[in-house]
Amino acid sequence: MTSQSTQTATPAGVLTGIRVLDFTSMIAGSYCTRLLADLGAEVIKCEPPSGDYVRVPPPLRDGKSAYFAHLNCGKKSLCMDLKHPAARRTVEELVALSDVVVENFRPGVMRRLGLDYPGLKELKPDIIYCAITGYGQTGPDAGRPAYAPIIHADSGYDLANLSHQAGLDRPLRTGLYVADYFSGMTAMAGIQSALLHRERTGAGQVVDVALMDTMLSMLVYETLSAQFPVDGPVMLYSPSATRDGHVIVMPITQGNFEALADAVGHPEWKSDPRFAAYADRLVNWDALMAQLERWTAERSSAECEDLLTAAGCPCSRYRTVGEAMQSAQSRHRGVMAEVDDGAGPFLVTNAPLKLSAAPSAARPWVAECGAHNREVLCDLLGYGDDRVTDLINQDALIAADDR
After folding, report:
1. CATH class given for the domain over 4-220+328-402
2. Are 100 and 191 in contact (CB under 8 A)?
């Protein structure tokens, strides 16, 4: 962790002055509050005695998880046992001085702790309370446990993807967490909308984000075709083999297609009755792609990408994530930022948005669990050292060096 003077030197963002109490763990909630921190909010992460679970998974260096650092850089850490009455009383004092509470427990957990929205609203009538769950706060599935891959399966996302694969008889394996990250971004948008509403009306509210809802909202074509089944072929975009890998080519519009035909030396495709019009290309799409692959197979991926892109036809080679991170465009955009979690510097992604009048970037420091206990309680709440020590002795507050 860097010094407090370094932390306060961070340029002001659009959310500077907004204080967020973060009761999240794992991915979706932590990503939401990480984005809020990137935009300037003061985020106080309230971790359990064992710390956030994501402090454990690899990549690990000197016992520190880079995964945790990516999701939680720029946040302060307060380590408390919320099952202890004294800890809950301290949280209530913090709520009275905060603008936003974010949690991703299963429905009912915060109520049992006495920290749900109705109770916190009594302490801070204009509090914004964001709850992120698998299925939402109400309904027959509200209590179901869920992680992103569960939602991928339950939403239809996995079977929709399977329907586009040839020769497979079971859904694809996954190690990606699309629902988590998209839900985190959705929650960030909901919180900012609620803050704007509060600015206009003075009223707080609940932001209820469900991973299931966010996944369904991504499946636009699929939700429509479920209601209005489409007869005939669907245009699928497959990799085309090159001398050294693959490219993906997407001549969607008429202009794209004509640019492709000219670029690959087949202007006759533009008058070929199989390909000339969109409806004809749709029926004969596989034939068009087979002819295109004869051209790509004789060239490198880079050559295909350069020639087709210059002609005005969308094309990309297949890159690794590492290659994409280091691309000239990523470097130009400042996609990556350097942070240091105490095990050395490494790169994380910045918030995926840019504001012309304010910064939106990862703060370069990562807090040890409980590193800000005394700062938060003494500087913010005015506790004396004796009171902090008493909380530690009661095991309500867990000192960083006791973990």
Report:
1. alpha beta
2. yes
